[in-house]
Predict the 3D structure of the following.
Amino acid sequence: MKSYTTRDVAKLLGLSEAQVRSQARGYLAPDRGPRNSYRFSFQDLVLLRTAKALGEARIAPRRIRRALRTLIRQLPAGRSLSGVRISSEGDRVVVREDGSAWHPESGQLLLDFHVAELAQRAGPMARRLARRARQTDQPLTADQWYDLGVDLEIAAPEDAQDAYARAIALEPRHAGARVNLGRLLQEAGRPAEAAIEYRAALASRAKQPVAAFNLGTALEDLGRRAEAIEAYLTALHADADFADAHFNLARLYEQTGKRAAALRHLNAYKLLSD
């Protein structure tokens, strides 16, 4: 569910509505609302704010459009831009995430773009959207509540939790909503409740490597190391190339004195990370 109108985006980003529409035609694919008007997600906001910042750094508009279109294609399905920093180096665009960097094209003057600043400004608007969704005469489907939760996560995480909970109430086997709700609960310091959601996601769909991995991290937060190891092994059973699961297993096996197993998983992690 796309959440922001062209006017909303123009107000948040300090652009004209014509500029927003022009950028949308360049590299985004926003949904359409009444009278064929654009409806933007928070992810779209991140990209539009980034395009503005890169333009202010004197990157050519053609390069910005090409780099951001490439970035959208490169991100794995469902991956949020919230953990990504997009910068300019000279006349090129650089993307950084989790300590690694890559170039949708390539590159040298650092201009870091942080999502938190935009989220703070978008928060009141996001909360109004959530309130409207709860009060509408046309009930939302589970998938629509899930999509709304994704859009609300950065700007209004408590409303995102509510959206995911509503999706689950309508469709208890909605694995995506379970995983995302679990992650938000874990980030809020509630690992026991998060573990319940991850287990429910796995019960509804066994081959869920992310749910199993997240369960492992929640169990570690709870001090249940042996169960965490089992969860990480479950993640690898679903996806043998899950590098972070190998790394966490190597660390836990090292802590429990199982050096051979630790070395095996550390080597697997290194091979996958090269």
Remarks:
- The CA atoms of residues 122 and 256 lie 46 Å apart.
